[in-house]
Amino acid sequence: MRKLYLGFAALLLGSSLTYGNAADEILHNPALEPTEQVAVTSAEDSGLTPKRSSAAVIRAQQSTPLAPMAPFVTYNTPTPRLAEATRAVEAEPPATPEPVNTSLESYAYIFAELEHLNSEIQKIKKDTAKPDPKKSFSTPKLAGRLFFDSFAIDEGKNTPDYENRAGLRELRFTVTGTGYEVFDYKAEFTLASTGGVDMMDSWIGAKNVPLLGYFRAGHYNIENGLSFMSGTNHYTLTGFHPSTYSFNLGRKCGVSSEHLFARDRIRWIYGVYQGQNTNVNHSVWSDNQGLILNTRLTAAPYYAEGGRYLLHIGGHYSYIDGVTSNNNIDAYLGGTNWLSRTLRAANPADQHHHRSGAEIAYQRGPFGARAESFVAAYTQGTATGTTAEVCYFLTGEHRAYNLATATIGAAQVKRPFRPFKYGDWNLVDGLGAWQLVGRYAYTDLGDWRGAANSTGGYQHDLTFGVNWFWTSNIRCIFEYTHSQWDEGLILAHRSANIFGTSIRVFW
User: Fold this and answer.
1) Is the bond preceding 71 in cis, omega lying within 30 degrees of 0?
2) Alpha-carbon distance values, 159 to 13, 229, 312, 487, 497 (Å)
3) What's the rounded mean pLDDT across residues 299-305?
4) CATH number at residue 400
5) Who is most buried in 102, 164, 258, 404, counting CB within 10 A?
6) Pairing of strands 382-393, 433-444
7) Percent of the chain that is helix, strand, coil (3-state, to 5)
């Protein structure tokens, strides 16, 4: 009996040990309630155990560290397969990182890109910024110009006598200003040869107008060519290119719209103008004042360093309807309208005609070249003009270029000419800028030979000149022009040699 009792006790003890420790792995689903069944697997046993309390489950969770497994958490040591993967990862050599480019060129490129992005951001902010209502009109700026010219004329054989001329070529004052950060204006007056005062530019403009871009209204130049729009301050020599005087339409009252594209490299302007000129009272008294439609399109496909390296191309077109003034095409002695007229194509009855032209300019450092052509088509015939010039700065300067107006401006003098006194000595600081210029111009008014009130014919002008820029605002001009023309039905040959000098100041 004692042996029976000992055997039964041993059986109970073995069962309890098997219940508590025989399982190699216990799986727990945290989503189950504490009294739910727990799945058990082992080499000796598998299946479902009886329901256990939550305290027993918690003790089982705390007895063994957790290892990540979804959707169950394993209370056990890693399996052999996981151990093998761990050893393989530890045995794999670490990857070598790719080398980073830290050269100066890479940093320079990054900085250049950042600078470009910043400039674009600032431009967008400026274009979209609303004007400050507290800032009304700025203080007006006063500018002016003073030109004193002298011409000596040596007439050729069979050429009428032309008088020499010297005197004040131009005295002009200009007032400009801005308002509310979006408006600008200009008022300009010149001392007329009659002793009175003539109105020149007088207009107001507005920036960023919907659909119209830059909108301007008032009295100002109609855009006909590069030389004419660059202004009198920036004549290459003593005057515009010869054909420019013959074909430009001058200043008229009107409105226009200007647009810039492709980072300001392309510019387009179109406008509608009154056809008649204003008189000395700055008004027009006429039932039919006429109409002029004008447009000009330009591009600068090659532009760097403020125009030091430049390729400019463009063209313009004007339709003139019902206009009786400025209907003539005139050619002038030496190509400047400050001297006498040589040829005329008169069309007082032809009030409807077209004018067009093309322009090109190239600059590469101190070297520059320009060319322009003009056409005026009437019912009676066609008048044409062409001008080409080359120039070179001996001292290395160049003419500036304005993208906003598509014009060529002043020279930026590197070492201005400045006399000064040092003790008993009169010395000079700098030689200024020296520029050589060569130019040829041709005007064809042959369709008006023998026409009423006309002296039709052909004119050639060959000019050589020197510009001496004391500063960017002061210069002396020396030029020589050989002008010859054939006029009338018999094409009588005329010629003259013109020697010109000028001192010019603008501020």
Assistant:
1) yes
2) 146, 33, 39, 11, 11
3) 96
4) 2.40.160.10
5) 258
6) antiparallel
7) 20, 50, 35
Domain count, the chain: 2
Residue 3 has pLDDT above 60, yes or no: no
User: Is residue 66 domain-resident?
Assistant: yes
CA distance 431 to 395: 9
Same domain as 131, residue 52? no
Do the strands 291-304 and 309-321 form a parallel or antiparallel pair, or are they unpaired? antiparallel
Phi–psi pair at 240, nearest 5 degrees? -60, 170
pTM of the model: 0.72
Q: Which domain holds residue 58?
A: 20-79
As a whole number of angstroms, the distance between CA 459 and CA 444 comes to 7
118 within domain boundaries: no
Reported confidence tier of residue 158, pLDDT bands at 50, 70, 90: confident
Question: Are 399 and 478 in the same domain?
Answer: yes
Which pair of structure tokens corresponds to residue 35?
């009294």
CA pair distance 477, 457, nearest whole angstrom? 30
Contact assessment for residue 321 and residue 351, using Cβ atoms and an 8 Å cutoff: yes
- Final residue of a structural domain among 79, 100, 115: 79
Q: Are 29 and 37 in contact (CB under 8 A)?
A: no
Phi, psi (deg, nearest 5) at residue 424: -95, 10
- Report the pLDDT averaged over residues 133-159: 88
Q: Where are the beta strands (DSSP E) in 399-489?
A: 399-402, 407-411, 418-422, 425-429, 433-444, 457-469, 474-487
According to DSSP, the β-strands at 291-304 and 433-444 are: unpaired
Examine residue 7 and state whether it is found in any structural domain, yes or no.
no
Q: What is the mean pLDDT of the chain?
A: 81
Mean pLDDT, to the nearest integer, of 22-48? 40
Q: What is the pLDDT of residue 437?
A: 98
Indicate whether 40 and 170 sit together in one domain.
Answer: no
My answer on whether 331 and 448 are in the same domain is yes
Same domain, 70 and 195: no
- In-domain check, residue 89: no
Nearest to 279 by CA among 240, 246, 253: 253
Rounded to 5 degrees, φ, ψ at 85 are -65, -40
Instruction: Based on the fold, state whether residues 356 and 494 are members of the same structural domain.
Output: yes
Tell me which DSSP letter residue 233 carries.
G
pLDDT digits (tens, 9 = 90+) for 464-475: 999 999 999 999
> What pLDDT, on a 0 to 100 scale, did the predictor assign at position 318?
96
CA–CA separation, 17 and 167 (whole Å): 130
